[in-house]
Amino acid sequence: xxxxxxxxxxxxxxxxxxxxxxxxxxxxxxxxxxxxxxxxxxxxxxxxxxxxxxxxxxxxxxxxxxxxxxxxxxxxxxxxxxxxxxxxxxxxxxxxxxxxxxxxxxxxxxxxxxxxxxxxxxxxxxxxxxxxxxxxxxxxxxxxxxxxxxxxxxxxxxxxxxxxxxxxxxxxxxxxxxxxxxxxxxxxxxxxxxxxxxxxxxxxxxxxxxxxxxxxxxxxxxxxxxxxxxxxxxxxxxxxxxxxxxxxxxxxxxxxxxxxxxxxxxxxxxxxxxxxxxxxxxxxxxxxxxxxxxxxxxxxxxxxxxxxxxxxxxxxxxxxxxxxxxxxxxxxxxxxxxxxxxxxxxxxxxxxxxxxxxxxxxxxxxxxxxxxxxxxxxxxxxxxxxxxxxxxxxxxxxxxxxxxxxxxxxxxxxxxxxxxxxxxxxxxxxxxxxxxxx
Length: 438
Ligand SMILES: *Cc1c(COP(=O)(O)O)cnc(C)c1O
Hints:
Layout: H1 11-14, H2 21-24, E1 30-32, H3 39-44, H4 50-70, E2 85-87, H5 90-97, E3 106-110, H6 121-139, H7 153-159, E4 163-168, H8 171-182, E5 186-191, H9 197-205, E6 209-212, H10 217-229, E7 234-237, H11 243-250, H12 252-261, E8 273-278, H13 283-296, E9 300-307, H14 312-319, H15 348-354, E10 360-364, H16 366-378, H17 390-401, E11 408-413, H18 421-436
Parallel strand pairs: 3-11, 4-5, 4-7, 5-6, 8-9, 8-11, 9-10
Antiparallel strand pairs: 1-10, 2-3
The structure holds pyridoxal-5'-phosphate.
């Protein structure tokens, strides 16, 4: 079946069996993964293993003293990049879960408040640059057993000869640029047309070079990748194909499992924990789903949430193919106000890893995300960017589809913490406009 995606074949008829027609029409859909397998069996077959996850968790601990030195705001926490769990009130939980919700509690994993970067990219993006810095230092003969050596004048002088690059709709570029610049690297971020102006400006403000592309996210990534490949002093953080990035996200599962243990929530396969993860290229939700499966096995059901116009991971997984299938191939536009999720084609590496782990993928309308941005702003007072509210919109469809009563829904909020008042007012204004046009 080896044809080039998007060429000649009629995608609608060709893939009619496996990609639901509602997805092709751009309607909200819950796709339940027919390939899901018992966690132990699925994890055993993967190229990324428990050892890799263990190393990433250890790495984060080792990098903490360095992070505390690089960013004064982390001094208090000893350099921990972590976020809180926030339980919603029973009333507000019921509002999220809807009439079929069976009074299941809703808990928010507040990655929109991750320190320094204000988005989930602090996990993957930071990790990959830290791992790069350590490798360069070791290659130059430095002893990196104390990570703080990576902030020494000697290390900074070394990093000044190197450039970190990435392609981004905004948040990954910010995270990579921020930590790269903090360590003395040059940084260059290729942004897609979806990137918001203030996300470009704040990158320029930290001394990163911003290259604005007229095309979509995949084009921006492709451009950056080619430029970086031609320059040996350049390191490219490849959002579409990075095991390191994936593991940086996956390590969040250790933090999450520890926090969960302190709550009266006890996931079992009979009363599982449903975790709703906003999904772009798949790296962040994929890494976290992978990590969660290692910690909680069949007691956790990861659900990815994508905009109706950009369900790239759904399309890739449902196509059942090894080659890339994009949302354009099935007639969708990739046009969404959820800039962090405006991705036309999934990471194949991620789809390979999570193809048997993810419970399902829900698609949601922009208006639904805006609705939850506004609701969560009113109470409990969260400042979410549009993408970060996607998880709230998938709780109802998932709750209605389940044959068991879950022990809780976790909504993973993924970005928005760095917005100032004016930026957030702008989001709320667009939310009101979206509500008015419904
Ligand atoms: C990047 C991002 C995501 C999704 O991560 P992917 O790795 O692209 O799937 C979700 N929400 C926000 C706010 C993001 O910036």
